[in-house]
């Protein structure tokens, strides 16, 4: 199948790799020499491991100056890695299954849906980290995500709690208790079994929504709601995922925001990081890896 070069009405989001490619790939920016971070020598890794950061754009984005946090990724990302901006006609889209392509192109009626799905597809098919453009990274990548001295040394996939909300009162402002964010998702290598199953789950769920409903609950399609529900299903937990034991002393994601829930299945380890690693409230804490600034530009052009 040839590349789809349609320009769709727009939403901007992010993913990271060694080149920094802007827009349609016509402009290349060298980031060599801009780093002030000491990058430790990487340990021996699986040859399938990738080091990439990616931002995704569903349609044209009008003002790149609105994303100052992009500079933090250039500063904190190992120079051997690439930083790339992906569009809906990126070459990896040709790898999608027929069902995935059908859903992905159908989502173009509402750019935020297509952008959310493009992030998931990118982290599944390409690996690395997919992040929103309003996310500031505050620790070296990929060292903080897979280094031997981190809680994530054995993780194949890393997701994180969106906010420390676990009761009936606070959940009124969210869609799930123990909600899992999709503004920064990591896979050590392409084609994680977990992420593949998650994508299939979302494809099947998409068919249950009214066609082209512009008032659809965005997080219920390819966002936090669906991701959180699937983690519960995939882990086969007999209690909410945030109340599953994560520490030898009985801690959980709810009681210990520095802990990590580990799901070991199909020869990979899926890690759900506690709220102090990637949540909207982690700023200022030693564990914090990324800070989400809630720019929400997509609300102006869903």
TrEMBL record:
GO BP of this protein: protein N-linked glycosylation
Entry-linked Gene3D superfamilies: 3.90.550.20
GO CC annotation terms, alphabetical: mannan polymerase complex
Source organism superkingdom: Eukaryota
Any GO molecular function: alpha-1,6-mannosyltransferase activity
Any Pfam family: Gly_transf_sug
PANTHER family hit by this protein: INITIATION-SPECIFIC ALPHA-1,6-MANNOSYLTRANSFERASE
Protein name as annotated: Alpha 1,4-glycosyltransferase domain-containing protein
